[in-house]
Amino acid sequence: SQQGEEDPQALSIQEGENATMNCSYKTSINNLQWYRQNSGRGLVHLILIRSNEREKHSGRLRVTLDTSKKSSSLLITASRAADTASYFCATDPNGGSQGNLIFGKGTKLSVKP
Amino acid sequence: GAGVSQSPSNKVTEKGKDVELRCDPISGHTALYWYRQSLGQGLEFLIYFQGNSAPDKSGLPSDRFSAERTGGSVSTLTIQRTQQEDSAVYLCASSFSSSGYEQYFGPGTRLTVT
């Protein structure tokens, strides 16, 4: 079963604009991670936010986490054409007791030059 | 250093044949994961290994799927009697430990069952 659900499913913006993607999940978590995937192959880790953190920054990325609402958002500022990819959130369900990650279906971001 | 490698990168097989997919994790990573991704979909967890513990096989879709990890390093995912619905990209990932650590993914094996 899907733990994380991203929305929107697809997002198209112009270069220079900001892109916001959201993720909702169902069970308690220890941490939430965001990954990027280009061309349907291997994923690249972007950022990890722990359950006791509310916001985290990494370069042009800003991630927020609201454990009361079981939701997270990923903001990419000043987007570039190279940011075009699919973005997935992943959680360690049931407080991390299971060890594996559960991924959402992803948001497909298209940044037009 | 070297990342996670997978072989083959592409595999075309006939329905009913067995296939073996290989994953070489990053040296020193104790956790190894297999996922499956169908076209345009998210990742479906299949199985994970943590050190010498018994693997978590809870995501394997049927008993045609099995995996082993030899010597705590290389892993092989075997699919017996392949079906067309097994067509997908099979992704392997490793991490320093399970839970709370980022996962490093290989490039995947694209399996096509004809």
Write a concise keyword list for the protein shown above.
heterodimer, A: 113 residues, mainly beta, 6-stranded mixed beta sheet, 5-stranded antiparallel beta sheet, B: 114 residues, 46% strand, globular
How does this structure look, described?
- The complex is a heterodimer of chains A (113) and B (114).
- Chain A has 113 residues and is mainly β.
- Chain A is built from no helices and 11 strands.
- Chain A is globular and about 45 Å long.
- Chain B has 114 residues and is an all-beta fold.
- In chain B, 0% of the residues lie in helices and 46% in strands.
- In chain B, strand 8 and strand 9 (104-105) form a beta hairpin.
- Chain B starts with a strand and ends with a strand.
Concise synopsis of the structure shown:
The complex is a heterodimer of chains A (113) and B (114). Helix content of chain A is 0%, strand content 57%.
Give the SSE map:
The complex is a heterodimer of chains A (113) and B (114).
Chain A: E1 5-7, E2 10-14, E3 19-24, E4 29-37, E5 43-50, E6 55-58, E7 61-66, E8 71-76, E9 85-93, E10 102-103, E11 107-112
Parallel strand pairs in A: 2-11
Antiparallel strand pairs in A: 1-3, 3-8, 4-5, 4-9, 6-7, 7-8, 9-10, 9-11
Chain B: E1 5-7, E2 10-13, E3 19-24, E4 31-37, E5 43-50, E6 65-69, E7 75-79, E8 88-95, E9 104-105, E10 109-113
Parallel strand pairs in B: 2-10
Antiparallel strand pairs in B: 1-3, 3-7, 4-5, 4-8, 6-7, 8-9, 8-10
